[in-house]
Each structure stands twice: as C-alpha cells, then as structure tokens.
Design goal:
Number of domains: 3
Shape: globular
Oligomer: single chain
Number of helices: 18
C-alpha cells in the first residue's frame, strides 16, 4: 500500500491504495490493484503488472483505463474489507500476495495476525492464509475437487461429463474461476453454453474475463442476445471492448478467429526485453513463438504495423539488438475479412504458428493462431473422440 505506480520507463503514474480480491474455490485470487491517479481511484488488472518491489509497482506498458473503479458483486478489498477482521482473539493486520505455481495468477498466501491497541509491543505472527481461509470463505474440503484441480482441462471435461447435472454444478461451484475458464475453452460449444447458463451472472462475468478473448467471443456468440448483452455490460470496459470488436466479425474469417492480445512490442525494444516478454507463463505457447512489432501504442489496434520476429531469431541475436534490426517484413499481414480457408492456407504455406491481422489503416488488430484454425476446420465434436495420452 502507498507504493508508487510507475510506467515501464519508471515515470510516476499514481499510488497504490488497495488490492481487489475475489473468492476462487478455497482461495482468494488477486484481480488487480486500486491506484489513486489524477484525483480518482482506478482499477489496474494484475496482468498489467510487470513487477512489484520495495521501490514501487511497475506496469508492463501500454495505457491504463482511467475510468473510476466500480466494485462488482463478490469482489473484496484487502484493506477496506478484510483488515481488522477479528480471528479468535487477534485481528488481521496484513496479507501477503504471491504468484501461483504457474505464475499466471496471484493469490493471498500468508496473513499477519496481531492484537489491537496503542500499547501493543509484540510483532504480529504470520500464518499461511489457508489457516484463516474459513473466516472469509467456508468452502468445504472435497477430495474429488482437489483431484480435478490437478488434471488437464480436457480430462476435467471428460470427468464432468460423467457426473449427474446437479453434482456437476456443485463441483464447478468449488473450482477456481481460472480453471473453469480453461474448462470452457476445451468444451464443445453447446456444452460450454449449458454450463455458463447454470452460473450466476457475476461469476459468469469473472470467468469470461479469465478466458482467452477468442474463446470468450465464441461462447458469447452462442448465447442469446439478451444474455450476451448483460454479460458484456457487467464486464470491465478494458475486458469487454476487445470482445465487442471481435463480435463484429464473421466467425469464419481472420477477424472472427483472431486473438486481440498478441505480444506487441515497439521497434526500439531490445532482444533481451522481447525474450523476457515471451517468457511470461501466461503467454500462450503459440503466441510466444513470435513477437509482432508496431509503432506505439502497443495495445490493439496498434500504431503502424512493421513486421514480426520469431523466437528462434531472437535466440540468435545479441541481447542489445533492437527489434527493428531483425524484422521479418516480407510476410504481408492478412485482412480481418479473409476467409477461414485462406487463413489456414497462409499458415500452412509459411509454416507459422500465428498470423498478423491488420486493418485498412495498417494497424495490427490481432493475430490468428494455428490452434484456433484447427478448432474450426476439424469436425464438430472432435474433442470427444480425441483421447489424451
């Protein structure tokens, strides 16, 4: 708390006020931070944070949404809501947050408990958050749920399919939002829609925000218009705006297939910085295979698109080399309205894992990945027939 929020170059942006948490199974997951910026309190998604240390909280780059923060149902603020909660004969005085095992999400991991009063001299003692979790979320232990959380999402889908509907809903209610998001990404469309329709609206919103944008759009497109509109309205603008843009494209075109969140860097970014970006665990493998280079801004739609660099080329270049000196600019980007078949042929013809998509102004608006093309060209229901080794 009270640490400065700084941009990628170290420039002061604001000051941290609080941490936004949401129940996720038996844990509290960090959605983001609240920062005081230009006399207003804004929300900064945890995925936008590159580093937290004693000097401040550093952003990855790009812009921040300056809309004032509005709390949604189910969200809790660490300082405003949880601090000073009585636990036995002590009170919660501090919380530790840390990245999870896969580094993609942050969770509360430790708690400091102490006594009240100005005469207190003993330092608070620190315990694992799991020891006090029941104070804030009394979710019962379930062996089956614990097992499911260790499985690959495809295997979880298979296990859930074998459960009676009521039991399936109970199990899903105990899984973390990020795991439910992965499960929905692996489900056939009709099953995913059926599962979402059993969730309360606020949890469905959180789960959609955890999904890859292209998968979230496929799911939203299969919902009726009223439900789709309600979900988009309740999502945070920085999450819903790219989805609304994707929904304007036909699903069997490059625009309908693309993700709006490829790795985009400026031409003066060094090779060392680029490798650090694609090393981040939450970047999908197919997107980490290359970086796209454009003039600022680097959030889609970007400035003028310049080219791309594959990770193998990055490994061969000196770390201080600027990306503008190792671009592949001979591969033309595709237009958002390019049909699915042509997209597949372009990916196969150039042996690519991802293909840049640009608008008429030459701005990068997204990237089509090979896995999304395969999902659309393989026969419907192929996931049910494909067993995992």
């Amino acid at each position: 708390m009270r640490l400065p929020l700084v941009d990628r170059d170290g420039g002061a942006v604001g000051r941290i006020q609080d941490v936004v948490l949401v129940p996720s199974g038996q844990e509290l997951r960090v959605l983001g931070l609240l920062a005081h910026v230009q006399r207003r309190t804004i929300f900064v998604n945890i995925n936008r944070i590159a580093e937290i240390d004693a000097t401040g909280v550093r952003l990855r780059g790009g812009t921040v949404d300056m809309r004032p923060f509005q709390r949604r149902q189910g969200e809790q603020l660490a300082v405003a809501d949880l601090f000073d909660t009585r636990i036995g004969d002590e009170y919660l005085t501090d919380l530790a947050i840390s990245p999870g095992p896969d580094q993609a999400f942050w969770f509360t991991t430790k708690a400091a408990l102490g006594r009240r009063g100005p005469l207190r001299r003993r330092a608070p003692h620190v315990v694992a958050y799991s020891q006090i979790a029941g104070t804030f979320a009394g979710t019962p232990e379930m062996t089956e749920v614990a097992e499911l959380r260790e499985l690959h999402p495809t295997d979880v889908v298979t296990r859930l399919r074998d459960l009676p509907l009521a039991r399936r809903q109970e199990v899903v209610s105990l899984l973390a939002d990020d795991q439910v998001a992965e499960i929905l990404e692996q489900m056939p469309d009709e099953e995913a829609v059926g599962l979402v329709e059993t969730l309360d609206i606020e949890r469905a919103v959180h789960i959609l925000e955890e999904m890859e944008p292209d998968d979230a759009v496929d799911l939203l497109a299969d919902l009726d218009e009223a439900d789709r509109s309600e979900l988009l309205t309740r999502m945070r603008p920085e999450e819903s705006t790219p989805l609304r843009r994707l929904l304007t494209y036909d699903e069997n075109t490059a625009g309908g297939l693309m993700t709006p969140e490829p790795v985009v860097l400026t031409p003066t970014t060094t090779v060392a910085e680029a490798l650090a970006q694609i090393r981040v665990r939450e970047v999908a493998t197919e997107l980490a295979a290359q970086v796209f280079v454009a003039q600022p801004p680097t959030s889609t739609p970007t400035g003028r698109y310049l080219g791309m660099v594959g990770f193998q080329r990055l490994l061969r270049e000196p770390p201080s080399t600027h990306l503008e000196n190792c671009l592949i600019d001979s591969l033309d980007p595709v237009a958002p309205d390019l049909p699915l078949r042509d997209v597949a042929e372009r990916l196969a013809g150039y042996d690519l894992l991802a293909l840049p998509v640009c608008d008429k102004a030459g701005r990068l608006v997204g990237a089509v990945t090979v896995d999304d093309v395969l999902d659309h060209v393989l026969p419907e229901g192929w996931r049910r027939r494909a067993g995992r080794p």
